[in-house]
Give the backbone structure.
Amino acid sequence: MKLFYYKENNFGDQLNTWLWDQLIPGVLDDDESTAFIGIGTLLNDRLPLRTKNARLRVIFGTGVGYGQGIPQIDDSYKIYCLRGPLSAQALGIENKFALTDGAILIRKLYNFTSKKLYKFSYMPHHNTDGEGWRLVCEKLGFGYIDPHWPREKVLSSISQSEVILAEAMHGAIIADAFRIPWIPVISHSTILSFKWQDWCQSIDVEYKPSYINRLHHPRQKLDILSPVRLVRDWARQRESASQLLTVARTVNPTLSSDTKVENLTQKMYERLQEFKQDTEKGVLS
């Protein structure tokens, strides 16, 4: 059974190899005849082509989104759980499969109690604007969490923060799993609200993002020759810093209830045991 995930060097996607290797050791290999589809927004019309050698696709905590449509669910799919109720509705299947994002199972693996170093930390969706945001966070005294950092560094940085300002959805998912309040933010139009709403409904909270301006990389050598652009970049940084600070000071952070997150963790773990039993019995071969 081969793990299928979006192979971009981004935090949420890269959780797959580490998480599943520990939770289901010895199950995943290079046999493409069965695809294991876990963390990510992967249920769309592209999935059949991307897993074209699979006779069976195992769905575990995945969400609907991106692409131009959704796959037709037939006998080539074995669904154990989905990210949330919107995914179940989009696929036209029973709501009993709508649990939550698979990343919640990190609660079974990671010691998420750490000394707090930052009152607020900001985690963008991608690091395309990273250097600019790092400078902004440094000036504000905020932590900055690059979603392309190594997994362990991201996890420790989240756990060392009191509140996470998250454009990266899996930053918020891990924060919630660690019992750290979070505030969703949006800085550009590539953020897919559907996947956030899907996950938020699974944990019984409302998705209410705060909007901030997009921040580009500050220019370097070009700035020496173009002082006007340099001034403009600094002005954008000051504006972005002001917006981020306002969000941190005025928006009430979100956190699911302890009971809800513990119940979901247990239900997801039970589905995982069901999957492991099916594997051992040869049901998925």
